[in-house]
Each structure stands twice: as structure tokens, then as C-alpha cells.
Amino acid sequence: MSTSETSPPGADPSSSSGPQSSAKNSSSEQNGGGFLHNLSALLRPLAIERFRIIDLADAEQTIVGIKKDIEFRGFNLWILVFSIIICSIGLNVNSAAVVIGAMLISPLMGPIMGIGLGLGTNDASTFKNALGNLTIAVGISILTSALYFFTSPLDEASSELLSRTQPTLLDVVVALFGGLAGILAGSRKEKSNVIPGVAIATALMPPLCTAGYGLANGEWNFLLGGFYLFLINTALIALSTWVVVRYLRFPLLHYVEPAVERRYKRLSALLFLALLGPSVYIFVGIVVESHQDADLRDFVATNIKTVTGASVTENIDRTLSPPQLQVVITGVPISEAQKTEWTNKLAATHPGVELAVFSNDVDKADIEDLQRQVELMLSSYSDLSAKDKELAHLRAQIAIVEGEFRKLQDERLPAGIGQEVLATYPDAVSVRWGRVDGRDRDAGEPAASFARLQVTWRQAIAAEEAAMLEATLTTWLKARLETNAAVQVDLISPQPIP
Q1: Residue 472 domain flag
Q2: Which residues lie below 8 Å from residue 378, measured CB to CB, with a gap of 6+?
Q3: Distance between CA atoms of 475 and 482, rounded to whole angstroms?
Q4: What residue numbers bound the domain in which 315 lies?
Q5: Percent of the chain with pLDDT over 70
Q6: What is the pLDDT of residues 160-194, one digit of tens each?
Q7: Which of 312, 419, 396 is nearest to 358 (CA)?
Q8: Is the full-model pTM beyond 0.70?
Q9: Is 324 helix (H, G, I), strand (E, B) or coil?
């Protein structure tokens, strides 16, 4: 009797039998799993070796170093005062470089890390000592800063001050990771240069100086905002220290009563959450406002900037209640109906935000025409100014020429003098005239010129008669020249009669 095997409906006749197929699948799974297992076994030691920090920590020296920096006495206290003054000056004059320099020398990290160390090791004595010294340091810092801002002639709030009045979740994140970097650097057997960078990143000094500014000027938002930002940074640095201390397995102190220990830890957690909660709320509000501002700019781009020929500038003023979207339009006139339409659209899409449209209602063509007229006027004015300068130069030249001409006229004697003398005096043989220039030895300067008349006589005449004749000719020559200046008349004749 023969037997035959039949396949179930829908089965592949070419497929392998059950036991053989299962063996193959199992082998394949083992091979794949083995590869992943081998890869994981290979990479795990490398990752552990690369990121391991426990074996490089020096718990004993770290605890000693943190406890040493907790106390604020003498040197540390004066360094704190000096750094506060430097930071206040930097905030006052809006100099980020000066603020950074102040943070580099700030000694505030010591007691804050001491608080985290006390929490992480259950050391209540260290915790209380660090908290007390931190309180003293904060009080001295705020009073020092307030004294500076009270005496400073610059009382306007700079952007550096304004940026420290509203803590956000970003400040929390920076303080958290800055604190982690600080405690890790401090726990190494071989110390690094990370601490100065941590002091800058955590930004402990500027918030305290901002609080001092608020105290000096009665600006309570500055006082509360700055102080709250400092508390957040302090809490996160202390938390970071606690985390690292517990991870590195620093030796723990235990309370005699476990209930007291639990209560101690519970109060610490509640304090941290109380400090962190408002920051989260503020950060969420800022994110919401940022998204709303982006939507408002999209509204302006979609509805208002589409006006042909218009130049549009928008601004969102959140100091007003409710917030106001301010739009300035130039180039084309905007009707009241158009403004109403935009207002209704904004109210439908962004309730709680007002629209303020400012338009000069002047056509762009009118503006261009006005610009051309102004340019033409300026060009004409420039041409007139150049012509005025040229005319003034010509007038000066004319004045010089006229002066020279008058001088030549004054120096030149009339041509008819000789004929007049010869006609008046028959015994006169010849006449010579002109102006005579001279120089005085004692004066060292040219002497004044004078008119000279020389008359040659035909025959000898007596001395008295010659003198009378010279006097007469002198009087006549002055009258002829219409001058009162000195003139000289010389009478030349043969040997005078004795």
C-alpha cells in the first residue's frame, strides 16, 4: 500500500520541509544577532573609556577646594567688591567687554558650589556655611552696586541692564550646563582652565548689579528681575554640583534620623522647583510672542505691502496695552476705507492686537516732483554761489587795477607844464619836469616822491631875483598840480650877477 503526501491548500510545493526550514531561519537569526552583539561588545568599551570621568576624579581634594572658597573674608571680600564695581561700570556704559572682565574675577562660584556640595554629601554644616556666606556676598554686592549707580551721572538704563531683567528658560539651561562644566573641572586631579569660562557663561555678577541699579533708582522691575535671575543661576549651579557629586560617588554623611534626611531633601527639591517655575512661564510667553510677531509680519507682507508704489515699514509695540501693530506707509495715499478693511482683517486673525496705520497721503509722483524741484534749487544755489565768488574775485581785480591806474595818474605830471612856463617867461630857454623818488639812509625805507621842475634861464640874474622867481614858480606848480605836497623848483642860469 503506497502513501503520498499532499500539501495544504495555498502552500508552495517548492518550499522546504518544516524542520529543514526552521533550522535555516534559526541559523540566519543567530548570525545577525551575533553581529550586533559583537559590534556592541566592541563599541561599549571604547565609549566607556572615552566618556569615563569617575576614575579621574579626586573627591577629597575637590571637597577641600570647594570648602576653602566658601568663606568671604579679607581677600575674597575685596575681590568681590572690586568685581562688582567693574561690572556696574560696564553695565552703566554698555560695554560687554568690561562686564566679561568683571565676571572673570568674580569669586561667587565658591559658596554656590558649596551649597551643591552640602546637598550632594548630606553635609548640613557645609550647606549652612555656604548659604550664610552667599547671603553676605549677595548683600554686599547689591549694596556696592547700588552705591555706584546712586553716585553715577549716567542714570539711563543700557541694553546690558535691560537684558538682565527678564529671566528665561535659556538662562536656566546655560546655568545648568555651566555649573556641570564647573564642578567637573574642579573635580579633576589635574586642574584645567575651564573655571574662567564657566564664570562668564553662568553670568552671576550682572544680575546682582542690575538689582543694585534698581535699588538705587527705585526701579523695582530691575531689582526683582535681576535678583530672580541670580537666584535661578545659583539654584542651577548648585543642582549641577549636586548631580556631579552624587555621580562621582563622593562620600556621604548620614543623619541619625532618616526622616530628617528625607525632609531635608524634600525641601531642597521644592525650593528648586519654586525658582524654576516662573522662568518656564516667562520663556513660554516669549516663545508665544515670537510666533505672534512672525504672524503679524506675514500679515503686513500679505495685505499691506502689496499696495503698488507704497513704501511700508512695520513695528510691533508691546509696551502698549493692548499691543499695537504700527505701519508707516509713504509713496501713495491710503483711503480710510482701506485702513478699515485692514483693521477688520487683523481683528479677525489676531484678536487683541490693534492696527495703527500712518500715511502721509501724498502721491509718489508728487514726492518725486518735489525731489526734482529741491535738487534744481540746490543746483541753482550752487551755481549762484560760484558766480558770486567769481564776481567778487573780478571786483577785487578791478579795484587793484584802478588803484594802480590812480597811482600812475598821480605820479605822472601834466604834459602842458613846459609850454605854460615857456609862454609865461620869455627868458626861459628850456623846461624839464617829473617826479623824483628817493631813499633816506637813517630811515632805511623809500622816501616820499615829489614833483620837480627845472627851468634853464637865458641870462644871468641876481640871486634875490632868482629866489623870488623860484618861489613864484613853486606856488604856481602846487596850484597847477592841485596838491599841497612838497614840490621842488630849480632855476638854472649863467653865473648869477653879484
Answers
A1: yes
A2: none
A3: 11
A4: 303-359
A5: 70
A6: 676 666 666 667 777 778 778 777 777 766 655 55
A7: 312
A8: no
A9: strand
